[in-house]
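Q: What does the assembly look like in three dimensions?
Context provided by user:
Components: two
Sequences:
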Amino acid sequence: MNYLLRFVIFGAITLASIGSFNWLVDPYGLYWSPTIHGFNAKKTESSERGRQTKGYRLTAIRPQVLIMGNSRVEMGLSTEHPTFSNRRVYNSGIPGLSLDQQYARTIEQINQNPELKEVYLSLDFLDFLYMDPSVDDGWHPSVAGEFRAINFIFSLDTLTNSVSTIINQQKLANYIDRHGVHIPESYQAILSTEGIRPLFTQKLGSISHQLSNRPLKISADGKHNQGIAMLQYVIDAANAKNITIHLFTNPYHYSYLHTLKDAGYWQKFIEWKILLAHLANKNHLIITDFSGFNKYSLENVDLQQPHKAMNWFWEPAHYRAELGDLMLDELNELAQHGIGRKLSEESIANIITEDNQNVTKSMERWQKLKQALLL
Amino acid sequence: MLFNSVEFLFYFLPLTLILFFTIAARYGKEPAIALLVIASLFFYGWWNPIYLILLVGSMFFNYFLGQAISDSRHNRILLTFGVITNLGFLAYYKYAGFFVTNINVLFDTSWNFGHVFLPLAISFFTFQQIAYLVDSYKGITREYSFLHYLLFVSFFPQLIAGPIVHHKEMLPQFSGAGTYRFNARHFSIGLSIFAIGLFKKTVLADGIAEYANPIFTAADGGQTLDFFTAWGGALCYTFQLYFDFSGYSDMAIGLARMFGIVLPLNFYSPYKAANISEFWRRWHMTLSRFLRDYIYIPLGGNRKGIVHRYKNLFITMLLGGLWHGAGWNFIIWGALHGGYLTLHQLWLRLLDMLGFSGRQSSAYKAFAWLVTFISVVIGWVFFRATTFEGAVNLLQSMLGFNGLSLPNAIYARLGSIEAVLQFFNITSNTQGGAAFVSTWCWILLLTTVSLCLPTTQDIFSRVTNSLDNKSFDTTDAVWPAFAVTKRWVWSPTSRWALLCAMAFVLGLITLGQVSEFLYFQF
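A: Here is the predicted structure of the complete assembly.
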């Protein structure tokens, strides 16, 4: 047979084989083609691709309940919680997603998904910090990036990730499940080999570095913040469509809160809560604050047993789904665990006093932990 | 337009090929050449049509000046005028900003030259045309057809990043009637060479690039890097550049071959070289040829004694460095290689004086290869870093000035070896273990590929890959798996069709992440 003809036939076969293989393994959890335990059930390459793939999944699933935020909710809020039973729920939390994109994606779902009934929107302090918070030229939500599913099927990156997905099935590796929840197994791997210390030193060091290098602000005049202004758009959009919106701040380990304080951000943290309290009153809605000191956030870091996981946190910035379940209980008033506080103009003074007292009370404990971590 | 882009592979190339052979069959040679010139100018103008003015103007100027030089029989004034004009344009577009910046630093002035856009490929088409003028002056070549001249300069497979071709190499091929008939054999060979080049560029070069770029960015940004990270970054770039340029050169040769044109060889396994002179006989061979013929030899070459020879070598390499870019790092890189070549000559003299006869032994070759390779890697640090400080920062780390450390994830898994590491003062760091492992796996893989496998010149040696007749050449080089790989010679069999088709498809499925060739910036 003619060489060129063979070249074309072999090329076509190769291309079709790659496409079929990538579709079958589905390393990013885009299509949820048939899953086989030990072969492709754990989408171990999906955790870094949420930005590209979760928008596509939202369109495919059309959830009744949407969870939105950054990596904290992506790992922390389980879609298996009883409050979601018999409803299509999707966790669209994405690591490092800017506030602008979080809200743009939420508004897109509110406007384009007629099935949507409820939104759980997390509020994260660092997302509301700006170099120049006085600039506000209005906001036009737009979701970045056009998604082309074919690019993922016929892609060398996908091919290598398909192979590594198969190889890593038996390993402890992060992955995103079919409901968008990030299962952070790599924490278990790190705990079993390196222990808990690097999880704390790396995270606290990185937050400290991130904050101390830039003079970030919440507000120029104590009243305005671009993030809050964008959030108002989301609230208005949800109200217009009669969609229930649950707003809540994420819990942090006390070491995280002290790192904020050490970097000079405690007053800004308080200022942020005041702005949220105003927002709650203005819109007659509930904003639940989980970012205070309580028995969960004050969980002990046992460096004597470095390979043992903590009960409520993976590391200072990320809470476990066990804590997320308690938060969902409180948000839905199924039970009270003493984690959340309702932010309002009436409650804010007490919350500030409580937080200031607790940060002082836990100072000695923080100093000891810092010494032990060699920070 | 990039060779590794959808618009080139799916629109430009098929359309140009179909039109070329159809027009050649129906209307003959000259209209087909005209079509190829128009296609080449379209290809060039795709980036920015404004660049076309300079390219076309330059071709007009040089063609008619070449005619005048040929007619005048050795008119040195015309030649000097032509060379100065060409270099003047090159100097204006490429070096004026650099020159003014340095004047300002030196004399504390604040001259502003404004921002001059560097026209794509100006270094390549300028050198090619200077060579044409010199060859016209010497009576080596003469072009009677303006259309042929336009194709000689603008032929799209070699226009952007070489090979730098001589007029006398191309003219007979453009004139031959066989070029204008579709030839399935030529096309098969060209497509197969192109497929391998596409694979080298998109899979290998772009694959390793993601491990090189962050390290150089960090070094340029003043970050302190440990020993292994610094070497990882430098070696990754070493292989990125190799497979980028090797891939481009294969693609250029393959594309030209689809049209029935054989280009000169530009790249021949340079990392197998066991001395720096051999390296330069294998890396960017057509540039080395230009520098030798039009700078080194006119400077006196080796005809005026040893001292002059070394001086000429050094000046030639310094200018070679400057040719690559207007920056001190390129000058330092050129000077380094000038120094290397001089040292190598001195070393050979010393060995001769000592009566050393073991230069062909495996041990000596391995040692010589290692020294050569490390020297080349050090040179690439200056070549890639965007600042002098960045290059020095990275080199300091490569020398261990900033300590030796391994990612904690790896360190914690080493068990009893940890004590040995501590003895050598190797500590742990918080960098990612997976990235570290990937970096060194890539380095290991591409070291093996570049040292053990034959290059396309060898693989296609039976079917004339290029105008050079090198094949499986081990002169002054190491080739660890020579006995096994010397049989890997292309023939139009199913096995080769499968391998080349797979390479082509793997290259194709990277098109979503198009990246430019590194040599386009020169």
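Follow-up: The mean pLDDT of chain A is 92.
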